[in-house]
Amino acid sequence: MPHTHYARLEIDSLTKQFGQTVALKDMSFSVDPGELFGFVGSNGAGKTTTMRIALGVLAADAGTVSFAGRPVTRDMRRRIGYMPEERGLYPKMKVGKQLAYLAQLHGLSAPEADRAVMRWTTRLGIDEHLRKNVSALSLGNQQRVQLAAALVHDPDVLILDEPFSGLDPVAVDVMSGVLREKCLEGVPVIFSSHQLELVDALCDRVGIVAHGTMRALDSVDNLRSRGPARLEVHAPNAPPGWADAIPGVTVLDADNGRSILQLSPAADDQTVLAAALRTGPVHEFALHRPSLTQLFREVVSA
């Protein structure tokens, strides 16, 4: 049953130092109900530290975490589903027992916990492993158990640290489907990942983090439209230098009537097309926006 109290998760001006190392500096963003938020950055950028502060595992030196406009309390944290990057399951405990135990820790009664365990292990394709120790499972199935542990108490917020690492393509599809389902119910979902093509495909918005600060924050489409666009033009009769004088256009490569042009944000692709058509027929005219991977490299190295 969808909850009626899904709300926004807000991370406001978090700062955290470990000795002389600044792990977070003024980290701020929010995740709306039903939003899938991708949190990306290199190792050591501050993603895991931010997530641990949101969960209350770490204390911030400054800044606040709030849900539904109120500071996150211990009771409220029981309503968060968390999947840590270092998987936190008991290796010598049976899958079913472990999940039921974790569900009860989050406030479910024993019968509710048993029903939730059956529901999620079936949904994630691991119900045949209920009586096995976690350590006896493949890495991919251990991942699925870890996701079940994050979902079994029907959380109001999902925080997942590298949930896709080590998963086979089928498990990636299952995981992606579950995250989309939770969003449709109204749960705010935040996950970190190094697999940027997945972030690109799944997320409503993305935050790119470097050295403990938020460097870029927007929808994937908006972020990509900010980057330099490239045009591939095939105009077989075009003379050398045909595009040199067009405002905002840099010729990256030109050979045998094929040109690769970089457009500044102010450049107009229709002006380029008109110039190409003046030289004769145009067989190809394709605009390419930078991928999230290219953007990430630019933002992180800036």
UniProtKB/TrEMBL annotation:
Q: What is its main location?
A: membrane
Q: Where are the transmembrane segments?
A: none
Q: Does the keyword Nucleotide-binding apply?
A: yes
Q: Which InterPro entries match?
A: AAA+_ATPase, ABC_transporter-like_ATP-bd, ABC_transporter-like_CS, ABC_transporter_ATP-binding, DrrA1/2-like_C, P-loop_NTPase
Pfam families annotated for this entry? ABC_tran, DrrA1-3_C
Q: Provide the membrane topology annotation.
A: Peripheral membrane protein
Instruction: Tell me the keywords, alphabetical order.
Output: Antibiotic resistance, ATP-binding, Nucleotide-binding, Transport
A GO term (biological process) for this protein?
response to antibiotic
Q: Name one GO molecular function term.
A: ATP binding
Q: Name one GO cellular component term.
A: plasma membrane
Q: Where in the cell is it found?
A: Cell membrane
PROSITE patterns associated with the record: ABC_TRANSPORTER_1, ABC_TRANSPORTER_2
Domain ABC transporter residues, every copy: 9-236
Asked if the Swiss-Prot or TrEMBL record annotates the protein with the keyword ATP-binding, the reply is: yes
Xref: PANTHER family:
ABC TRANSPORTER ATP-BINDING PROTEIN, ABC TRANSPORTER ATP-BINDING PROTEIN NATA
Family stated for the protein in its record: Belongs to the ABC transporter superfamily.
Q: What is this protein called?
A: ABC-2 type transport system ATP-binding protein
